[in-house]
Design goal:
Helices cover about 60% and strands about 10% of the residues. The protein is mainly alpha-helical. Strands 1-2 form a two-stranded antiparallel sheet.
């Protein structure tokens, strides 16, 4: 990322200089080419550095009195950047990161993103500290979101859940605009089923606060590519309740010495699951390639017993994972001698 970051920043400064000097816009095209290859997280990380580089270019573009005395016939051309923003989408994309709030506002009004980097930039401006920029960006977002497809929304799902809900200014409004899209649930489903990188478990837990994804849990428990998604879905089905992180609090360890630790608080809700679905997910979890999921199957047998799940018990008892075998040893000791076990 370091080389890419330096290259993008240098290209942004050269592009801004070209705009201020009313030179050939090949530098702007080069920056736009580099920008479109950035991921959502790269764009968020580079937002502040880009602002500083564009500011530096604007300062360099203003001739000092000393320069005017040495170059009396080479005066700077006065360029109205806002006019240039309205003429070119590439210039608008560049000045979405401008140091000047008036320029960011004008860019937010004119910019129509057609790639992930551009859409993320628009979301960043929805959380801008300048109110007029936020208003312009949110207005543009509401105008464009209905036209975006499920595939285009897919690239924004992880970014939205991981960052935008924590924004204190316009993030909640922007998130609501995205989540009201008719294809948002489809995009969320695609990410949960196929994506393996990013905060996948946190994404699923946050969306389990409501009933919207309950129907998808059996598919996620078996078919999701991410082991963490399979684990959360399996846990929810086998335990019959969904859990999510609600808050973090300080807990005293020793008040005399001033020792304390941070403790996570969790909320939960009941998720009604048919017994047949639970049994199918349990059998699939026992054969899962991830030991994390197989441990959940072993813990379910510890809670519910082995009488109704003999095949699963035999499979887990001979598991290659030490953690799974240790749980099954405890399960055997707990339920040995019991002839019947109540299946819930």
């Amino acid at each position: 990322m370091t080389c890419k970051k330096d290259t993008v920043l240098a290209a942004a400064e050269a592009a801004a200089w070209a705009v201020y000097q009313s030179e050939d816009h090949s530098a702007v095209s080069e920056f736009d080419r580099l920008r479109t290859n950035l991921s959502a997280w790269d764009v968020a990380q580079l937002d502040q550095p880009l602002r500083r580089r564009i500011r530096d270019a604007s300062y360099k573009a203003v001739r000092t009195p000393a320069k005017r005395s040495w170059l009396p016939f080479a005066q700077s051309r006065k360029v109205d950047v806002r006019v240039e923003i309205g003429k070119s989408q590439q210039v608008a994309a560049l000045f979405m990161h401008a140091h000047d709030g008036y320029l960011r506002e004008e860019a937010a009004k004119c910019f129509v993103p057609v790639d992930t980097a551009g859409r993320v930039t628009l979301l960043l401006r929805c959380n801008d500290w300048v109110e007029n920029v936020r208003i312009a960006a949110l207005s543009k977002l509401r105008e464009l979101v209905p036209e975006w497809t499920a595939e285009e929304l897919t690239d924004l799902v992880l970014f939205t859940v991981d960052r935008i809900n924590e924004w204190q200014r316009g993030g909640a409004v922007a998130a609501a605009a995205l989540q009201d899209h008719r294809d948002w649930q489809s995009a969320l489903r695609l990410v949960l089923l196929h994506e393996t990188n990013g905060p996948m478990a946190r994404l699923l837990r946050k969306n389990l606060r409501t009933l919207d994804l309950d129907y998808l849990l059996p598919d996620l428990a078996v078919e999701a590519r991410s082991a963490f998604v399979r684990a959360v879905a399996t846990e929810t089905i086998l335990e019959g309740c969904a859990r999510w992180h609600a808050a973090t609090e300080w807990q005293w360890v020793d008040k005399v010495y001033g020792l304390r630790r941070r403790v996570q608080k969790w909320d939960k809700r009941t998720v009604p699951i048919a017994t047949t679905v639970q049994n199918e997910v349990l059998a699939a979890a026992a054969r899962d390639t991830s030991a994390v999921v197989r441990k959940l199957a072993a813990e379910h047998l510890i809670r519910e017993g082995i009488e109704a799940h003999q095949a699963t018990y035999q499979l887990l008892a001979n598991d290659t994972s030490n953690g799974v075998r240790d749980r099954m040893d405890f399960c055997t000791r707990k339920w040995s001698g019991l002839k019947t076990v109540k299946v819930k």
